[in-house]
Amino acid sequence: MASHTPPRLQFESRGWHASPPSDTIATRSNGHATTLRQRYYFPLLPSLSPPRESSPPSSKPRFYRGFSLLTKLRPPERSPTPRMPLLLSPISTCAPPPRPRLRRLSPPPPMVAVAPPPRPATLLPSLSIGPPTLPPPPTPAIDGFDWLDLFAFLSSPADSHQIPHPETEAELEARVVEELERVVERGRASLAEHRRLRQRQVKAETEAWARAAEEYRALERDMLDRNLAPSLPYVKSLFLGWFEPLRDAVARDQDLQRRKRVKHVYAKYLLLLPADKLAVIVMHRMMGLLMSSKDGCGSVRVVQAAHSIGEAVEREFKVQAFFQKTRKKSRSKNDPALDKEQAKCRKLVKSLVRRRKLTEAQKLVQQEIELEEWGTEAQVKLGTRLIELLLDSAFVQSPADQTPDSSPDFRPAFKHVLRKPIVENGRLKKKHFVIECDPLVHEGFESTARHVDIPYLPMLVPPTKWKGYDKGGHLFLPSYVMRTHGAKDQKEAIKRVPRKQLRKVFEALDILGSTKWRVNRRVHDVVETIWSRGGGIAGLVDKGNIPLPERPETEDPDEIQKWKWSLKKANKTNRELHAERCDTELKLSVARKMREEDGFYYPHNLDFRGRAYPMHPHLSHLSSDLCRGVLEYAEGRPLGKSGLRWLKIHLANKYGGGIEKLSHESKLAFVENQLPDIFDSAANPVDGKNWWINAEDPFQCLAACMDLSDALKSSSPHHAVSHLPIHQDGSCNGLQHYAALGRDYMGAAAVNLVPGAKPADIYSEIAARVLDVVREDSMKDPATDPNVPLARVLVDQVDRKLVKQTVMTSVYGVTFIGARQQIMKRLQEKGHITDDKLLYDVSCYATRVTLDALGQMFQSARGIMAWLGDCAKMIASKNQPVRWTSAVGLPVVQPYKKYKNYMIRTSLQCLALRKEGDAIAVQRQKAAFPPNFVHSLDSSHMMMTAITCKKAGLHFAGVHDSFWVHACDVDKMNQILREQFVELYSMPILENLLEEFQTLFPTVQFPPCPPQGNFNLGPAERGCWAQKLGVTRSLA
User: Fold this and answer.
1) Polar residues bias located where (predicted)?
2) Is the dihedral of CA 415, 421, 423, 428 positive or negative?
3) 33-37 and 25-27 as β-strands: parallel, antiparallel, unpaired?
4) Confidence band, pLDDT 50/70/90 cuts, at residue 577
5) What is the torsion angle, in degrees rounded to the nearest 10, for the CA atoms of residue 250, residue 254, residue 260 and residue 264?
């Protein structure tokens, strides 16, 4: 062997360890043993010399050896004692892959292919030559992924690359060293980036309000030094003007409470945070509430504002609590042991955070501090006091013309006023106190959102895995697996259930939270351009208000009354437009902040029925077409042949206009015919033909146009990388679940549970039935039937859109009043009926006909709904809430109880608060149980699908009954979601529910389960339906 520096010395000179040699000594083809031992290689690396012929293959599983080449530890010690090998990955008892034989030929060929050994799925979930993918927290060690890249390089197929056969083993070892160093460097860079993002996330969660306070202090200094106030944005200048007096007022109140012997109830909470941080929280929370208040933009109820501000202060205190708990206090000076222990604990927490060992830090925090709930009363009293300080400290200056000698016109920015009773949705609202902002503040709302701090943005690293009710989600922010909204029974139920029972729930939430998103910059640029030009197209709200009607010159009382009504409607519309503009600004503000990030994550939690929601409130895939168009997967995947097809179908679905009801082949033909317009939309989205603007979901349609255009214009469309999530939506999902529960064949066929030539459209079917009834009524004698005039007005207005929302919500318990309001809104949008009285009467008539058509078509669903309602009424009559366990093990308790009002006296006013009583709201328990039970079923189906998709290697996102994956994975997901639906309804769900009710409420005599239909065929027919559906099993 030629003389060379052994690789061991090369590695040790760089601070790396080589593992001790293994017992295997390779034998060359000439029979001589070599000195090349396998100490320089890592798990699963194939042998580079032929194995000994005398070693028969063993059929027994044996351990893989682990080596420490890729684990950089301390420099090697000069010790005669041999070091033990260090494992790169958990020891597996799987059988090792067979080692390929490489024989030196005579003469030796210039190249030989290195055949890849089969890899165990448990050890190698994915192989990539590109940058390694970081797993979710806890922070991965470098040995968790670095060696995968080198193994992929050395053992990839022959058609991928070939390794030149070296003349000597020294050259081969040198090549391994070179590749190893390259992979290590890439792994170190990836790990460093992950640590950097994780540190940023920790700071974002723990220093959000502190950064805002520091910003205002810096602005104050700059204003004094360089007179920067005139160049600040309008709202920033307002905040800057309020910050100092409000901070000083809070500080004075804190000093006063410290000196008082008898303190206010809110005093101990007021002293928990610094004055500047409290000032920032109050200003920003108040402005956010005023922009999004249901009472109309520009005012918010005192109770709501006080509670929201108190909650924000409590949340911030909990984030900072563990630092404050271990901080040296002046009163502990006389106790050196306690002081030393606190300092030690604080240093340990800081050290763990600095070393990215956040799991250990979180555990230490939970041990050191008991974060008890403050309670609503404490939150409201603290929030009310802070609002009072804001009212006394915040002023605005009128820009009206003033003489140089006149004094400035300062007036309060916020007022505490009594709102008069108003009629809303047919009900008289009681009078109540509100916080109302000055018109000068109100005018700046539309540009406020981008300057209002949103303290908690989407996460830069994968969320912490859920392990309990309050263990998971954010790294340090208080996170809860369920939104209980103060319902004690539900909170106790989920805390009491064994963790093992919630394994599927936690796993599904972790999968949803681990999906990596990013901002689609091209679509975002289009949105910003349209928004800067005034909006009003592509679903964006118009930046201008509608004109107010002028007062008529006549004094006729009827004309004056009509003018007042029209003025009231115009003002209401303008308030709604204003609120929509504020909401749009908040969404775009988040998009601007996250635009340059490579990716981000949305932690998810549940409502009490089990439906999953992103925890971020503004920009998320759960929201509007704007948000969905601006978001895309951070990781792209090649389209492939099936992916290109599904991308075209997705584009047709998003264009809508009836195209979504056609067969897949018709959708593909539509896209092919519209290719020139699609290319124009992608290349010139703003100043082109604007074909995409007419779509039902314009921004999602635009994103699909851009993705398809890129693919078709590339040299190989099937290999084009797509980041677009493709949606597969349920066909009136609630009715699908009722049809499966009742084995209703007619209902199943109407909602696409039975295969057909083209997708069935339940909304069009109901609209056709309604139209038949309306036409029949319009032909009757008006003297004998009062509905004839209404039918004649309605006959030209009936279409799919008129009935869609009512059909969709009928299975979720929509009332007649709710359905009437839905249909009235659709008729208002058409604009053919201008008289309010006639519009009301026609809406009532159309609602009756629509609900009758639904009852005739889905009799089985009506029977199940009635049975569920009867069971709920029996349970609630015993003063017990309805409770059950979902198909994935989630305990569900309906939170409907009668509330009690009680008064608390605050420094600002007396406030009426509500708290949960002991009495059960029987009627509400009955009405809500059928829709809540169906929601628990669709959430179970989504979780089961998410878990199976993850196991299949798919990137899954879900919005209730809408499932999203990459285009190339749609066929696989379609198979999975159907199989999971069959898996769900292979269980006797209604029978299990009845058995659980009988166990929980043994004194109640429940009626038997409703009879099932004929959607149960024999084995041969089931196999036929399964083949048509493309699944292994079928309900049919």
Assistant:
1) 21-32
2) positive
3) antiparallel
4) confident
5) 70
Name the active-site residue from 804, 897, 926, 950.
804
Q: How many CB atoms lie within 10 A of CB 501?
A: 13
More confident residue, 347 or 201: 201
Q: Per the residue annotation, which of 761, 777, 961, 969 is the catalytic one? A: 961
- CA dihedral sign, ordered 269, 270, 272, 277: positive
**Residue 100 confidence (pLDDT):** 45
Contact 990, 978 (CB under 8 A): no
Per-residue pLDDT tens over the stretch 515-538 = 999 999 999 999 999 999 988 899
Question: CB atoms < 10 A from the CB of 559, how many?
Answer: 13
Domain that holds residue 533: 517-598
Whole-angstrom distance, CA of residue 103 vs CA of residue 112: 9
For residues 805 and 826, state if they share a domain.
yes
Q: Could you give the CA distance from residue 39 to residue 412 in angstroms, rounded to a whole number?
A: 78
Give CA separation, 445 vs 70, 290, 416, 924, in Å: 55, 9, 19, 38
The three-class DSSP label of residue 8 is: helix
641 as an active site residue: the answer is no
Per-residue pLDDT band at 867 (split at 50, 70, 90): very high
The partner residues of 612 in beta bridges, in order of sequence, read 606
Please check whether residues 410 and 305 belong to one and the same domain. Answer: yes
Is 343 contained in some domain?
no
Q: What average pLDDT does range 781-790 have in this prediction?
A: 85
Q: How far is CA 930 from CA 443, 735, 864, 934, 995, in A?
A: 45, 12, 8, 6, 17
Same domain, yes or no: 555 and 646: no
Q: Does 280 reside within a domain?
A: yes
Instruction: Output the pLDDT for position 583.
Output: 85
| 3-state DSSP assignment of residue 448 | coil
Report the 10 Å Cβ neighbour count for 677.
Answer: 16
Flag whether 1003 is in a domain: no
Is residue 848 a contact partner of residue 913, using CB atoms and an 8 Å limit? no
- Work out the mean pLDDT of the chain and round it to a whole number: 75
Closest C-alpha to 881, from 845, 925, 824? 925
For residue 878, what are the CA distances in angstroms to 81, 121, 342, 997?
A: 75, 53, 52, 13
Number of helices and strands (H, E) in the chain?
33, 26
Residue 814's CB is within 10 A of a number of other CB atoms, namely: 20
Catalytic residue among 248, 729, 870, 971: 729
- Segment 906-935, tens digit of pLDDT: 767 777 777 777 889 999 999 889 999 999
- d(CA 733, CA 747) in angstroms, rounded, equals 12
Query: Looking at the 3D structure of the chain, how many domains does it have?
Result: 5
Check if 729 is active-site: yes
CA-wise closest residue to 458 among 506, 523, 515: 515
What is the dihedral angle through the alpha carbons of 796, 801, 803, 809, rounded to the nearest 10 degrees? Answer: -170
The answer to whether 687 is a known catalytic residue is no
Does the pLDDT value for residue 67 go beyond 50? no
Q: Pairing between strand 612-614 and 604-606?
A: antiparallel
- The terminus-to-terminus CA distance of the chain in angstroms comes to 71
- Residue 962 included in any domain: no
At 288, the amino acid letter reads: G
Among 455, 476, 499, the domain boundary falls at 455
Pairing relationship of beta strands 471-473 and 910-920 according to DSSP bridges: unpaired
Q: What is the pLDDT of residues 115-124, one digit of tens each?
A: 444 433 332 2
**pLDDT score of 508 more than 50:** yes
Return the higher-pLDDT residue of 398 and 564.
Answer: 564
Residue 310 sits in the same domain as residue 212:
yes
Instruction: State how far the alpha carbon of 338 is from the alpha carbons of 246, 294, 325, 348, in Å.
Output: 36, 51, 12, 15
Last residue of a domain, one of 598, 619, 652: 598
Query: What is d(CA 997, CA 929) in angstroms, rounded to the nearest whole number?
Result: 13
Kindly tell me the burial class for residue 330, based on how many C-beta atoms sit within 10 Å of its own C-beta (0-12, 13-18, 19 or more).
exposed
